[in-house]
Amino acid sequence: MPTTAELVEPASDADAAALLRGATLVIPRGLGRSYNNAAQTAGGLVLSTARLNRVIALDPATGLADCEAGTSLEQLMTAGLPHGWFVPVSPGTRQVTIGGAIAADVHGKNHHRAGSFAGHVRQLSLLLPSGELRTVTPEGDPELFWATAGGMGLTGLVTRATVQLTRVGSSLLGVDTVRTADIEETMRVLAEHDATHGYTVAWSDSMATGGSTGRSIVTSGDFVAVGDLPASARDRPFHFDPRPKLAVPDLFPRGLLNRCSIRLANEIWYRKTPKSRHGELQTISQFFHPLDVVSNWNRVYGPGGFRQYQYVLPFGEEAAVRRSFEIISAHPAPSFVTVLKRFGGADPGLLSFPRPGWTLALDFPARTPALLPLLDRLDRLVLEHGGRVYLAKDSHVARSAFEAMYPQVEEFRRIRAVIDPGRVFASDLSRRLSL
Ligand SMILES: Cc1cc2nc3c(=O)[nH]c(=O)nc-3n(C[C@H](O)[C@H](O)[C@H](O)COP(=O)(O)OP(=O)(O)OC[C@H]3O[C@@H](n4cnc5c(N)ncnc54)[C@H](O)[C@@H]3O)c2cc1C
After folding, report:
1. Burial letters for 298-326: b for 16+ Cβ neighbours within 10 Å, e otherwise?
2. Bridging pattern class, strands 26-29 and 45-48
3. Is residue 231 classed as helix, strand or coil in its secondary structure?
4. Of 83, 86, 163, 280, which has the maximum CB count within 10 A?
């Protein structure tokens, strides 16, 4: 549901502290890439980090980057790659800020190896609801650090953070692709590739039924060492061109994404992919951020937009993963981008989403009929099998279900009651879930 708030863009910590003084309702905002209303607060003040976006220092020897919280992952890539450093974790878009990446404790295709984003943050500056600017480290103040990591902006405004970047051999990846016939093969190949590749993911055909349920394209990759690049790529091994290449026209036909068109697109994509391909060279944009190549890709969903849904189900619950595919493929609501991946170990974030298991991300055109009953059904399945849904993508889960999915929520509420007794930091999302 859209709501109205005042948007402010402080240019310094002092500006932000001044804006906080006397405010009764505040929520931080980065680039607004969370899918619903985590960065919005009806009738309150939205503290944007749009002008707090400088990379302050990047040590080319150690890969430690000190940046303001509004720095985007794209900026960090542009700064780090010439020295051979890449962001430690990248979600499916690089248009997210460091503050947003910490607050949602985001994950990427390398979760099975690298965990989620907060595990690579060495220190952060947090403007507390009281107006105090505190330096927080995982060792010095683990309680506040791990409430802030995954805490969806509710512990204060992160103004600055030090992030350990990851060494890469070049800006190109060697990618292996396998086309799988059904969900069992998809899960088997993902498990095999997790053992051999740093980055893995499966794009799944959510509309395939019967013996083809869960058929997918699994792509797995690793950055290639300069010496292994073809001669033509060796003179610019860290080249990175972040510019979008395409735009969705203003007059993109409404309702073009429907059950028929998505079924057709899935069929074409699936069939055009060879059964298996080894070592294809791909750029960072091709491999990590295909949607960023289209500047306003979200328009394809039309004015009604779309709803994202993402769950994780523990290992051992493979039958429930299969069941979720059966439920989705039998339903009138089609998911256009359907992505399955295996998570590795969880970090201590009290509200961090990732935990060991299978994570499935879906997006449904919002105006498709009977979407809410479908989400209800998925919530029930996820809950019954010990899973949880991702707050950065949630628009739907009931408070009681959320509390059962996140058993550490009471600990989170306790910490919040200490640092923000007046509940000044709150979002439309946090009010719905009484966080
Ligand atoms: C195309 C696409 C693909 C995506 N793929 C993935 C994926 O693969 N993995 C994944 O984990 N996520 C994914 N996401 C979700 C996205 O990574 C997260 O929602 C992320 O938090 C967005 O960052 P942002 O800067 O836009 O933050 P916003 O959306 O503006 O805010 C998100 C939350 O962070 C808080 N916040 C923002 N800045 C600060 C700050 N400085 N201090 C304190 N709190 C702050 C806000 O209050 C809010 O609760 C994807 C999103 C898109 C659009």
Report:
1. ebebbeeebbbbbbbbbeebeebbbbbbe
2. parallel
3. helix
4. 163
Residues 221 and 178: beta-carbon distance below 8 Å? no
Report the separation in Å between the CA atom of 118 and the middle of ligand 1, taken as the mean of its atom positions.
Answer: 13
Residue 44 Cβ inside 6 Å of ligand 1? The answer reads no
**Residue 100 CA, ligand 1 centroid: distance in Å:** 4
State pLDDT tens for residues 164-218: 999 999 999 999 999 999 999 999 999 999 999 999 999 999 999 999 999 999 9
Segment 145-167, tens digit of pLDDT = 999 999 999 999 999 999 999 99
Q: Distance (Å, rounded) from C-alpha 431 to C-alpha 435?
A: 7
* pTM attached to this predicted model: 0.96
Residue 197 CB–ligand 1 contact under 6 Å: no
Q: How far is the CA of 157 from the centre of ligand 1 (A)?
A: 14
Q: Is the CB of 40 under 6 A from ligand 1?
A: no
Find all residues with CB under 8 Å of 369, minimum gap 6, and list them. 332, 333
Question: Is ligand 1 within 6 A of the CB of residue 32?
Answer: yes
List the one residue out of 176, 204, 144 whose CA is nearest residue 350. 144
Split at pLDDT 50, 70, 90, the class of 22 is: confident
Q: Is 136 in the pocket of ligand 1 (CB under 6 A)?
A: no
What is the 191 CA–ligand 1 centroid distance (Å)? 27
SS3 content of the chain, % helix, strand, coil (to 5): 35, 25, 45
